[in-house]
Amino acid sequence: MSMTGRELKEAIKEGVTPLVRALERSAKANEELLDIAKQETVQMEAEAGPPVCPNCGVVNPTVYSSEQAGSGPLAESVYQFEMHCCNASVWAIPEGWVFARTAAEAAEAIDYRRAGVTA
After folding, report:
1. Same domain? 56 vs 41
2. Do 54 and 60 contact (CB within 8 A), yes or no?
3. Greater pLDDT, 30 or 40
4. Best exposed site among 40, 58, 81, 116 by fewest CB in 10 Å?
């Protein structure tokens, strides 16, 4: 049985149309997944900045910290503080370290920082 050009065109259309619809649904789903991934990335990208309360915006607020027991790699240390300015809990992730061998050296480094001098 031979097909006319029109019949062949209709047969191809019947076979291709569902495939095209499936590809369109797949493309839309991929775009939605990409949007979700971008939102997650944006939420996780944090930059080191000045000591500002993320809840109320107070610059260099006084904090309360109870010593937390535990151990692990220094680069993965996380610190919990309670902000006196708004009584909210926050978690701090250091982006760099200034080490001192003694409490006096540490105090001196803080004094330099207060004066706006970097060591």
Report:
1. no
2. no
3. 30
4. 116
92: helix, strand or coil: strand
Question: What is the pLDDT, as a whole number, of residue 82?
Answer: 94
Query: What DSSP string runs through 40-80?
Result: HHHHH-------B-TTT--BS--EE---------GGG--EE
Whether residue 43 is predicted with pLDDT greater than 80 in this model: the reply is: no
Same domain, 14 and 54: no
- pLDDT at residue 61 is higher than 90: yes
The shares of helix, strand and coil residues in the chain, as percent rounded to the nearest 5, are 45, 10, 45
Number of domains forming the structure of the chain: 2
Q: What angle do CA 62, 117, 100 make, to 5 degrees?
A: 70
Q: What is the mean pLDDT of residues 22-50?
A: 77
Task: Identify the pLDDT of residue 1.
Answer: 62
* Structural domain range at position 106: 48-67+75-119
Phi then psi for residue 78, to 5 deg, are -130, 135
- Cβ atoms of residues 83 and 63 within 8 Å: yes
